[in-house]
């Protein structure tokens, strides 16, 4: 699931996603004072544009150059390009800047599990003191039986697992499985989300 994989997947469809923000993002972040936000795995920019409309200054990253170009065009068309930054990044190779973001927002990102948790630690370190981590996944109970050769979803971090790794420098505000408040993408069967919202202590 490298950059080539995702570029080819995006090229295979004129539009991969609806352009609307994730429902968990809207539910959890509405009303939070805006600041610097990092949208991780931004895709075609639905979440990033919503955050910008709420007053956030957004840095949006993705491993796919194709997705980033689409997102940047959407921001231009919406008159939101000023104050937004788009960057190709692979978190398993290069972590984001430490202590830099009041919100780190991650939705349905297949972040590979590592024994030393290096990729995850870099992501957590990006949250500024007092800032918020929002990490959403699909409930694995919704997934059909895995066929031979399929990617193992257990090879990637799940929100509840991350909650257990945060340590004393964090306050966990939400750690739960809940019904999706928006329809799943066509062709999928996701009925529930797993949600972690945590605040890094000042």
TrEMBL record:
Keywords assigned: Methyltransferase, S-adenosyl-L-methionine, Transferase
GO molecular function terms noted in the UniProt entry: methyltransferase activity
Pfam families: Methyltransf_25 (PF13649)
Domain Methyltransferase: 38-131
Gene3D superfamilies reported for this sequence: Vaccinia Virus protein VP39 (3.40.50.150)
CDD domains xref list: AdoMet_MTases
Superkingdom assignment: Bacteria
Location of region: Disordered: 178-202
One GO BP: methylation
InterPro entries: Methyltransf_25, SAM-dependent_MTases_sf
Signal sequence, start to end: none
Protein name, entry field: SAM-dependent methyltransferase
Naturally occurring in which organism (per UniProt): Streptomyces marincola
């Amino acid at each position: 699931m490298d950059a080539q994989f995702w570029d080819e997947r995006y090229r295979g469809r004129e539009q991969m996603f609806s352009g609307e923000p994730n429902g968990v993002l809207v539910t959890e972040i509405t009303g939070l004072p805006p600041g610097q936000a990092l949208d991780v795995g931004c895709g075609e920019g639905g979440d990033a544009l919503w955050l910008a409309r709420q007053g956030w200054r957004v840095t949006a990253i993705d491993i796919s150059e194709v997705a980033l170009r689409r997102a940047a065009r959407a921001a231009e068309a919406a008159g939101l390009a000023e104050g937004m930054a788009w960057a190709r990044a692979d978190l398993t190779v290069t972590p984001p800047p430490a202590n830099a973001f009041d919100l780190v927002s991650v939705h349905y990102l297949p972040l590979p599990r590592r024994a030393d948790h290096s990729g995850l630690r870099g992501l957590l370190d990006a949250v500024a003191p007092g800032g918020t981590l929002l990490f959403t996944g699909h409930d694995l109970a919704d997934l059909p039986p895995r066929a031979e050769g399929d990617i193992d979803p257990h090879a990637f971090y799940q929100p509840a697992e991350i909650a257990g790794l945060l340590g004393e420098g964090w306050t966990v505000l939400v750690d739960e499985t809940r019904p999706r408040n928006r329809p799943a993408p066509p062709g999928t069967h996701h009925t529930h989300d797993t949600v972690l919202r945590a605040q890094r202590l000042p």
